[in-house]
Amino acid sequence: LLPRAQAQKLYHLLEAKGFQTRMEGVEFLLDPCKTSPQLISTNIAQIFDYFVPRISDSHKKVKQRALDLLAEITEAQKDALNPVIIGLVEGITKNLNSKDPRVGGA
């Protein structure tokens, strides 16, 4: 399982009020996805409950960064995404018609 302290930090960052802190949480998730994919895959549903809302974040910088990193996260976690794929598709779909070309492109 993901170490409790690391999981709590991730959840705190991803739910923060400040957009910079939420963006830090998105960045924070990438490292364990790459370095310890089995730890993330064991907790994928709970982690993505916190991550998926960042794909539709109210702040376009957070949203864009989450979408950009999603490609790397997906590559690292491709075998573990089945339980969260519906939520991911819904989050991504909301951004397809974004007026911001960087968000739509991501």
UniProtKB/TrEMBL annotation:
InterPro entries (alphabetical): ARM-like (IPR011989), ARM-type_fold (IPR016024)
Top-level lineage group: Eukaryota
Protein name: TGRM2 protein
Organism (species): Melospiza melodia (Song sparrow)
